[in-house]
Amino acid sequence: MATSVKQMLEAANAAVPKITSDQAAEMIKNGDTLVVDVRDAPEVAASGKIAGAVNVSRGMLEFRADPESPYHDKAFDKTKTVILYCASGGRSALAGKVLKDMGYDKVYNVGGFKDWSGAVEK
């Protein structure tokens, strides 16, 4: 049976806790946290990103997160807390579900960049 985007988002939102920008800021302050911006490069170039965030477009996430991939990004470590965001929260929810499926345990979705950028210094 085919799966719709709505169903995929429902599953992702059920698997990946949504947090507030204040909760995200507290997690970052506590350390050992990776913040991932899953927007595409032109979006980041147009609006900037959260200070310290790693930009990995949604299409490359699996390759950057898998230590066996030749494209692995050493910032990805399954022992770290991972906080994801995108433009509105959909891609970050889907990305969080993928990371959970890949064995990352502490994965959170803070939602959209505009919601968070007002609360956290860029």
Q: What ranges have pLDDT less than 50 throughout 5 or more consecutive residues?
A: none
Structural class: alpha/beta
The overall pLDDT average reads 93
Number of helices: 6
Indicate the radius of gyration in whole angstroms: 13 Å
- Please provide the ordered H/E string of secondary-structure elements: HHEHEHEHEH
Taking the sheet with the most strands, its summary is:
4 strands, parallel
Strand content: 15-25%
| Range of helix content | 40-55%
Shape by Cα distribution: globular
| C-alpha termini separation | 43 Å
Extended strand count: 4
The order of strands across the largest sheet is 2-1-3-4
Quick take:
The protein has 122 residues and is an alpha/beta fold. It contains six helices and four strands, in the order H-H-E-H-E-H-E-H-E-H.
Describe the structure.
- A four-stranded parallel beta sheet has the order 2-1-3-4, sandwiched between helices.
- The model has no long low-confidence stretch (mean pLDDT 93).
- The chain is globular.
- The protein is an alpha/beta fold.
- It is built from six helices and four strands, in the order ααβαβαβαβα.
- 30% of the residues are buried.
- The protein has helices at residues 5-15, 21-30, 41-47, 61-65, 90-101, 113-117, and strands at 33-37, 54-55, 81-86, 107-112.
- α1 packs across α5.
- α3 links the parallel β1 (33-37) and β2.
- The termini are far apart.
